[in-house]
Amino acid sequence: MFDTLSDRLEGVFAGLRSKGRLTDADIDATAREIRIALLEADVALPVVKAFISGMKERSKGAAVSQALNPAQQVIKIVNDELVDILGGETRRLRFAKTAPTVIMLAGLQGAGKTTLAGKLSKWLKGQGHSPMLVASDLQRPNAVTQLQVVGQQAGVEVYAPEPGNGVGDPVAVARESIDVARRKMHDVVIVDTAGRLGVDADMMQQAIDIREAVQPDEVLFVIDAMIGQDAITTAEAFRDGVGFTGVVLSKLDGDARGGAALSVRHVTGQPIMFASTGEKLDDFDVFHPERMASRILGMGDMLTLIEQAQQTFDEEEAERMAEKVASGNKFTLDDFLEQMMAVRRMGPLTNLLGMLPGAGQIKDQIAGIDEKDLDRTQAIIRGMTPAERQDPKMINGSRRSRIARGSGVTVTEVNNLVTRFFEARKMMAQMTGNMGFGKPGRGAS
Ligand code: GDP
């Protein structure tokens, strides 16, 4: 799910990586590309419009943060907008004050209601509840048996009409089930209802009658995420017909483009509460808008990284550092150490690099990074006197031997570090273009 959309968005962000600053024209161009990407993913037009205008609003309001480069800024904006479109906060199940809590499932035939009944009951059981399943789908042949099978797999009681006894009145079954649950001390009742292949007046009326009979605390509308644009008309029909309090996305493991999943919350105004991702009872979880957004962005944990950078990054400190870098030889080994520690505070370097998009392609190099090398570099710098760190040029042969002995490394390692430091300082000064104190090459000798 969402692969095409993820790929398209990744392309949009890649185009921004080379930019130094984000202009209004960049934002407009990016918005256009994202609009196309969403439409191609089958996202409903009103949702696309809301998304783009939300995105533009955010880019206007966004304080220009020096902690983030343009690509990161756009990723953050798109992410925040995605989270919003998907519902913002995670919406948890609401339990009734007096047991049993009644959860009614509604949706088309094949949407995944019966499977969901099993998944939800297993999940609830795992949370210490004692759910009971109710077979009010008397429409589809085998629906009752199917519910009994999932109930057995989940280790949960199933209330169903005796074969040949009262068969045919799903409303009565649902009504009776509440008393049965109360008597048997079940604290949650999950009522599986009948769907049809398409929206149909009889089906909707039956769902309404069941709802009236059991007065559910939650009506969950189950929707197959694979069905594309049709999903929206179906969702609207259920919203206007039986009404619902939450959405369950099923078959998110499929390879459809995911437009329905992205549209349903905005179109119906009801939160997505759970996601089903396979045929097994455990392929199920609470729906978290944030996690889904970062999955769609294919950013691995890029967003975590961006947030960590924002937290670790002190803008004033960065400016002070930039000035030092620009001035050539004002950048000392103390600064170098400080910078290195700031980066390492964000976590192990391998994790940090692993969070970057495209990290998969350089995983061998990442695996080759040895934190111990960084520890040694830090140890060497700590083995220097404050005067040496401030003015590394004074580190002559005998000082190098002393530093090596003190920090438990070889003289070659100290030499390498000092050489690398001078090279880096020279390069940084040249890159900033503003030489300030130092003339090219001066700080490096
Ligand atoms: P109902 O008619 O709404 O009760 O739908 P079912 O629960 O019978 O599901 C219809 C079909 O979809 C069954 O073959 C299920 O195994 C399958 N199914 C349900 N949920 C999922 C899911 O999340 N992923 C996949 N791959 N299949 C699912």
UniProtKB/TrEMBL annotation:
Its main location: cytoplasm. Residues 271-284 form the SRP54-type proteins GTP-binding domain. GO terms for cellular component: signal recognition particle. It is an enzyme of class 3 (hydrolase). Residues 435-444 have a biased composition (Gly residues). One of its GO terms (molecular function) is GTPase activity. GO terms for biological process: SRP-dependent cotranslational protein targeting to membrane. Its EC number is 3.6.5.4. Keywords: Cytoplasm, GTP-binding, Hydrolase, Nucleotide-binding, Ribonucleoprotein, RNA-binding, Signal recognition particle. It catalyses: GTP + H2O = GDP + phosphate + H(+). It comes from the Bacteria. It is found in: Cytoplasm. The keyword Transport does not apply. GTP binds at residues 107-114, 192-196, 250-253. Belongs to the GTP-binding SRP family. SRP54 subfamily. Part of the signal recognition particle protein translocation system, which is composed of SRP and FtsY. Involved in targeting and insertion of nascent membrane proteins into the cytoplasmic membrane. Binds to the hydrophobic signal sequence of the ribosome-nascent chain (RNC) as it emerges from the ribosomes. The SRP-RNC complex is then targeted to the cytoplasmic membrane where it interacts with the SRP receptor FtsY. Composed of three domains: the N-terminal N domain, which is responsible for interactions with the ribosome, the central G domain, which binds GTP, and the C-terminal M domain, which binds the RNA and the signal sequence of the RNC. This is Signal recognition particle protein. The lineage of its organism: Bacteria, Bacillati, Actinomycetota, Actinomycetes, Sporichthyales.
